[in-house]
Amino acid sequence: MRQQSPSGQCGDKEQSETQRDPCISPDLAHRRGTLLNRPEVLKGVHEAVDDIELTDIALRRPSLDDVFLSLTKDSASTPIPDESVAGEQPVDIPVVTPNGSDGARPNAGLIEASDHLLYGTSTIGGNEGAGAVFKLSKDGGNFGLLYSFSTSGGDGQHPYTALLEGSDGTLYGTTYEGGGTNAGTVFKLDKNGSNYMVLRNFTVGPPSPGNPLGQLLEGTDHALYGTSLRGGSNNAGTVFRITRDGLDLNIMHDFDQGDGYWPYAGLIEVSNTLYGTTREGGASSMGTAFRINEDGSGYGLIHHFNFSGYDGYYPLALVQGSDSALYGVTGTGGTNGDGTLFKLNPDGSGYTLLHDFSFWAGRVPFGLIQGRDDVLYGTTSQGGTNDGGTLYAINADGSAYTLLHMFGTNSMQGLNPSDAPLEASDGALYGTTHNGGSSSVGTIFRLTKQGDNYTVLHHFVSGSGDGILPYAGLVEGSDLALYGVTYNGGAYQYGTVFRITTNGGAYQILHGFGSGSDGNSPFGGLLQASDGMLYGTTFYGGSHQCGTLFKIATNGSAYVILHEFQGTTAYSANPATRLVEGPDGALYGTARHGGDNNTGMIFKLSKDGSGYTQVHSFALPPAAYEPDSALVAARDGALYGSTSYGGDLGLGTLFRLWPAATPDMLSVDIFNGMARVSFAGEANRQYQVLRSTNLTQWESLGIVTMPASGAVTYPDPNPPVSAAYYRAYWVR
Questions:
Q1: Looking at the predicted structure, is the pLDDT value of residue 439 above 50?
Q2: Where on the phi/psi map is residue 541: left (φ > 0), alpha (ψ -120 to 50), or beta?
Q3: Which of 153, 369, 506, 729 has the maximum number of C-beta atoms within 10 A of its C-beta?
Q4: How many CA atoms lie within 13 A of 284 on its CB side?
Q5: DSSP 296-326
Q6: 29: burial class by Cβ within 10 Å (0-12, 13-18, 19+)?
Q7: What does the alpha-carbon distance between residue 681 and residue 658 come to, in Å, rounded to a whole number?
């Protein structure tokens, strides 16, 4: 998704287009600092405890503090209750530590055999340092070395698994290495150490199993069943069956990367069905649980492990719906590992996954809007036909997911959109792709909300002075024209601001970035503020090559750099998202890097460029850091956003930030028949005080300027006889 910069530069203006990454950042020294106006973390993406091996259930009994998960054969997951027996007392047992010629570093658990002695293996040690088989009594006495593995003669070496006592009373086990080609062995020996025999030398490479790590299992047919970490036709591991005399070896299943692969654990058997796990592979490449019958039939995956427990992670976009809820997308995670769409209340409650993205229906979602019909519209940068991305619609309750367009069907019509579509005043959807088109450097497109009449309004052309690679979406101006930016191209090859009408006519480049100390490479989209001017940021450029904040008129005049980012401690660097206008009339934005810890920050400044302020500096991990989505100026006056990293599991957070001007109501009291309303706010800002008797109709009592102390008491000389409610809000 993103690459980390190997250099110590905020940006290098001399780099070629293919060398420059839109997310490269300065590698500045980290310094811990004080957080200002720390935002509330509303949701840290949580991981389910699902990384278990089925063998744990058989080999380990939970203590009072343990929490285990069991996986039912139909793939449901439930807690295993503690089964400690009341009244059990701990018993002191002498500790026996095998070392030297007595063995060392036992990696597997012990077994209790039918003679009530304990048997185990050590991975190294023994007479030749290749590992050993040992026994001891439960009081720690009678320790004895039964067998030392040899480094010569084709013997096995380095057993990592627990032993199995077969129904014939013989001990069976595996070694990870050794044998004829150092791919491990299956062996047996009697409990007195006699009659040691290598039953099978595994060979390196397909199709033989190789390097077993899991404990053997005796099936109902008295054959031995196991898994190998490697080998098989794909060298991704196997499930195998071997008779107790070693004469008959069967590969029951070859793992591959489309399947689960690399089984580290052994098997369990329930009603002639074998169950096991793989460490890698599956839908999220994080392992699987599987089942297979003893006769090799019926192989199937019953669970795909997922780092986030099927939650999404790395949030990339956020929007407020007409119901005041927040809707957003994550770039990865979910059932298929291809991203999710979620819903969350502004107070952090009600977190709900609405949709799991998938390859064929679109993956890696980037942008999201809610249309005037209350339907959510968004894009995925990949997935769909030829992995070219999609444009979709979905109801706010998660129902009726519909693909409106698949970009990969015709590369000439654009590929890989990277931002949300725009619903213009004519009700149609407009957007950009950063690939595809006649020059494979992007397009501007239009289609209806039903997915009809898809039209390319403009093909960006490389080498012609035109802009190329539009990563950001469009904005509709008050003149009903569409405005946007390209990351590269233009007169100086460092991006453009452009204008186009909704019918595709009057395409015009308003500004070419990159001249002198101008900003370059705009990555976030434009904002048309309340003054009618267009505001945006560049990822690079400026005097410090760490990006700029600019404004420009809709006719291309009055271009001004309002702020140059510095990339040093306490300053922003590399802004990559669209600005928002706060309820106080100031501009707010985020930068991925910079700030006190070089982990990103929220900044604000006035539309004339004055009053640049670091509103919040994100902390060092594991706290939330690297804001990656545009802020949402919500109807409650707060700003909402997301970070791609940090939180409980490092998978990203959603946060809320109240602007400094937000008043805090302190108290109301009655004195000599007069109500006194006390509240705090930002010095020198004007606040309007309102009163209501029913919380529905409010009347203004007047306006007060907050003194330098940041707190004021406003008098209401004629309060109602019945109850009254008071509130204050800032005046622009």
A1: yes
A2: left
A3: 369
A4: 26
A5: S---EEEEE--TTTT-EEEEEEEEE-TTS-E
A6: exposed
A7: 11
Segment 32-54 shows an average pLDDT of: 33
By the 10 Å C-beta count (0-12 exposed, 13-18 middle, 19+ buried), 208 is classed as: buried
**Token digits of residue 342:** 């979620």
- What does DSSP assign to residue 30? P
Residue 7 phi/psi, 5° resolution? -105, 170
CATH of residue 163: 2.120.10.30
DSSP characters for 447-504? E-TTS-S-EEEEE--TTTT-EE---S--EE-TTS-EEEEESEESTTSB-EEEEE-TTS
**431 or 34: which leads in pLDDT:** 431
In a domain, 671, yes or no: yes
Q: What phi, psi does 491 have (nearest 5°)?
A: -60, -35
Residues 189-218: what's their mean pLDDT? 91
Query: Residue 54 has what DSSP assignment?
Result: H
Of the candidate ranges 96-110, 192-206, 583-597, the one whose mean pLDDT is the lowest: 96-110
Output the pLDDT for position 597: 78
**What secondary structure does DSSP assign to 186-243, as a single string?**
EEEE-TTS-S-EEEEE--SSTTSEE---SPPEE-TTS-EEEEESEETTTTS-EEEEE-
pLDDT in tens, 136-165: 999 988 899 999 999 988 899 999 999 999
323-342 confidence digits (pLDDT tens): 999 999 998 888 888 999 99
Q: Which positions ≥6 away from 696 have C-beta within 8 Å?
A: none
The DSSP element (H or E) to which 59 belongs, if any, is helix 54-59
Q: Is 22 helix (H, G, I), strand (E, B) or coil?
A: coil
- In this structure, how many other beta carbons lie within 10 angstroms of the beta carbon of residue 101? 14
Q: Is 599 helix (H, G, I), strand (E, B) or coil?
A: coil
How much is the pLDDT for 2?
34
Q: Please tell me whether the peptide bond between 621 and the residue prior to it is cis, using omega within 30 degrees of 0.
A: no
- Tokens representing 41 are 């973390």
- Is 197 a member of any domain? yes
pLDDT value at 417 more than 50: yes
Match 């290598």 to its residue by tokens.
Answer: 198
Residue 135 falls inside a structural domain: yes
Q: What is the pLDDT of residues 627-678, one digit of tens each?
A: 878 898 888 888 898 888 877 777 788 888 887 778 888 999 998 889 999 9
pLDDT higher than 60, residue 321: yes
Using CA atoms, how far apart are residues 327 and 331, in angstroms rounded to an integer?
14
pTM greater than 0.70 = no
Number of folded domains in the chain?
Answer: 2
What is the per-residue pLDDT for 270?
Answer: 85
C-beta separation of 331 from 278 below 8 A: no
* Residue 659 belongs to some domain of the structure: no
What CATH number does the domain containing 690 carry? Answer: 2.60.40
Domain limits for position 117: 98-204
Instruction: Give 61 or 402, the one with higher predicted confidence.
Output: 402
The last residue of one of the domains, among 151, 174, 204, is 204
Q: How far apart are CA 456 and CA 414, in angstroms?
A: 8
Pick the closest to residue 578 from 569, 590, 562, 568 (CA basis).
590
Nearest one of 32, 25, 31, 33 to 8, comparing CA atoms? 25
CA pair distance 576, 23, nearest whole angstrom: 8
Of the residues 204, 239, 259, the one at which a domain ends: 204
